[in-house]
Amino acid sequence: PSYKRPTEEIVDVRISTEDALADFDEKTERKREKERTLKEDKSNAVMLEMLGDISSADAKPPENVLFVCKLNPVTDEDDLQLIFSRFDPNAKAEIIRDRE
User: Fold this and answer.
1) Cβ atoms of 79 and 92 closer than 8 Å
2) Number of Cβ atoms within 10 Å of the Cβ of 93
3) CA nearest 94: which of 82, 12, 27, 81?
4) What is the structure's pLDDT at 57?
5) Cα dihedral: 38, 40, 44, 45 (round 10)
6) 28-41 burial string, b = 16+ CB within 10 Å, else e?
7) In this structure, how many other beta carbons lie within 10 angstroms of the beta carbon of residue 6?
């Protein structure tokens, strides 16, 4: 494609950096950070779905489930149930260990 090059600059008014950042405030930054976090979470969920770790990227964990990692190898379900029963007498524990 061919196009004509302008003989002079077309932009009449340039916005200064100070003017461009005048609307930038802490509230805007928090909103952008929240949006970035949501996008990152969605991306991570899609990655886990592709790897087969979760059935759907839109699946949400139950509200009453607590994930605990790096447990001592000798820790068993009864130990965890005893510890967490302080907070909920009906607490149940299930340990799912890596195959390594």
Assistant:
1) no
2) 17
3) 81
4) 87
5) 20
6) eeeeeeeeeeeeee
7) 7
The CA distance from 69 to 57, in Å, is: 22
Phi, psi of 2 (to 5 degrees): -115, 145
Q: How many residues does the chain have?
A: 100
- DSSP for 47-67, written as a single string: HHHHHTSSS-TT----TT---
pLDDT of residue 38: 93
- Tell me the one-letter amino acid at 42: K
Locate tokens 């592709």: which residue? 50
**Contact assessment for residue 85 and residue 91, using Cβ atoms and an 8 Å cutoff:** yes
Q: For the chain, which ranges sit under pLDDT 70?
A: 1, 23, 99-100
CA distance 29 to 27: 5
DSSP 8-state code for residue 8? S
**Predicted pLDDT at 33:** 92
